[in-house]
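[[Encoded backbone]]
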Amino acid sequence: MVFITKKLSALLKYIFFSFMSTVLFLQCASIQSPAGGEKDTNPPTVLRSIPKQAKTKVKPSMIEIQFDEFFVLKNLANELLISPPLNESPIISQKGKSLFIELQEKLNDNSTYTLNFGKGIADYHEGNVLKDYALVFSTGAKLDSLQIQGSLAACPNKKIPEDLIVGIYQKDNLTKDSTIYLNKPDYFSLIDEQNQFHIKHIRNGSYELIAFKDVNANYKYDGASEQIAFHDKIININDSGAYKIWLFSEEDTLKLLDNKDNGRIHWAYNKEIDTATFHTDTTLKYFSKIKKDSLFLWPYNMSSDSAYVWAKVGQRCDSILIKKDSLKRNINILPLSSDYLKDSENLHLNTAAPITSIDSSKIELIADSVQIDFTLIKGDFTLDIEFEHLVNKEYNLIMHQGAIKGLNKSENDSTNIYFYTKGESVLAGLKINTTLKDTVYFIELLKEGVILETIDAGKPLYFEKLLPARYEMRLIVDSNQDGKWTAGNYFENVLPEKVYYYPELINLRANWELEVDWEINP
């Protein structure tokens, strides 16, 4: 019994000391943050690489980079950019203080390769990111040393998306073909926070410059679903200077997104419509309207219970079945774009359906509990109220039920519309001087992305009687003089109409006229 107890005691001691030895070993082997001292703010430093930086006549299948400290990878699989691009993604691994990149394909002869690590490497303790590190080597006898740089702007909106690639394709002429659909760029880069791009280590030659949003992460342009920018001339890399290109969305093939029969017929398309024609299988009277990407039709006085209507837009022809009992609907008055009304303007109302008649006895305009006289001006879808303005007043326009009559015995519901006026002492003005000469353009004033007013270049560049606020301003070069921004077309080598944003928000104060000088370099 004593013998068994001694053996058990010895076994327990052995287990205890083995366990403590393991714990001590793990503590010694683990990476610990240094105790005390100043906080580490330095990223890892590259001690050596295989191949060496700027090495020539090498064709590695495995790349090794050794750092001076332990490090972590931060989404390096996506951060690592290899130019020229590879067809197969490399295998990335790390061991100790070394990073390994195993290539899955043979490299091209006489080519300079650049591996840019983005923000994918950081030190272990504090997460300090190693920025702007790139490894360059050549499979030939020398490094290609030419480069191209420039900037990118988006139009008509200035927002530039993520995942944007700026690439160049070796070409001798501007013949538009399927290259950008089938091939990856010969060299590429991303844009920085200032929307600048810089492609380095390029071989001498002629190139086509293209940028696109790489939605599918395949380094290829996948058509109108992706935004594109391009230079409309072949670039000789020996030429000096920076290039500016404009990002836009190409017009896609016309597609019907939706159609509805809900008191009116509504066809919704994927782009704006210019003209349309209609056909029916019966004698049918109707009223139609085109509004941006939508087509509306209101039948009336139908003799049959139902009928088919075909809308022909371009090469498309889309049909819908309408039923007589669904046509009577209320006429909705659309909300005002702004509650503030300038003293030089009529109150302008828009309706969602055609207007056939107005009953002025069912309309009241009131300010300070006093009835205000007015005159009505009717349009097909609009109603203007003309009256003598009183400054610094709040108004209530009362539209009683049946004030507006429409097709198929439709009418409006009773509604109140509130708006106000201001005196000049609390308003602001904006005068613009531009450097653009002999150019057709128009300027838009925006607030929170909404277009408030537009001025053509042929008129005085002055916005008057504005509410004090912070505004955006943009200038659109109207090359085709159609009064709106027009997209480009890559295969026709047509650039989009350029859009310039004033570089800062414009702060307008009460009882003040601001004059701005806007220098624009086309």
